[in-house]
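Same chain as my last thread, 272 residues:
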Amino acid sequence: MKQIKKLFYGFLFLSVLLITSCNKDSESARLVIKLVDKAADYKEVNVDIQGISVHTNGDAEDTDSGWIDLEGSDVGVKNLLEFTGGTELTLVDTDFPAGKISQIRLKLGQNNSVSIEDEFPLETPSGQQSGLKLQVHEDLLAGITYVFKLDFDASKSVIHNGANKYILKPVIRVITEAKGGAIKGTVEPAEQNVLISVMSGDIIVATTYAPIEKSEYIFSGIEAGTYSLKFEPTAPSEGSDDPIYLPETLDGIVVNNGEVTLIEPVELKLVQ
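reply #2:
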């Protein structure tokens, strides 16, 4: 009896994990923020990034609600000239709730400097210390990876204002890329635990479950291309009177970058 209880609670725990994972995937996009730079005639341009946040409801002032700080950001003093010629610095790589974002804000500190022959401090205007706001206005779709490249133009951002006095006035262009696509749909009956696989020929690209009582599934970060979807219902235990369902395969599933491919509901057929 104890063994049966252990098995039951183990299966229940696994089901909760699967459902939680599925719900998270169905509501989240992947948000990546990178820093890149153009070449400039300096030895170093060091910028003190103290924090990164995004805004989720229109054009906002600092006092407005809607700003979300991105935890786990790679912040600190960054030499912009290390990130030229294809080298990029990933500041943020995280799951983020699907929906609209309007701005990215870089919170700047005071430890900024420029190195020519000698090193000089870069003064930062007080208005930028509260946050340098960059307009993006992007609708994040669940299952899609969005890469925002902050293209920092160091040569235009450093202003020489008199003898040995330099001011930091950042000039940044935001480049947005949507990478990969998503596949989303439902499979019935909901009473079945169904293994779903994305196939490229005979190669398994990704798998997920539509667990019992949760018929919705989603695949995120799938490269653009044409695939098959394979549905494999779990066979009932030996001696059980539970119904047996046939596996099914859908061919010709097209995935495009930055798009969610919606699949018509799949209803598995009973074994006759």
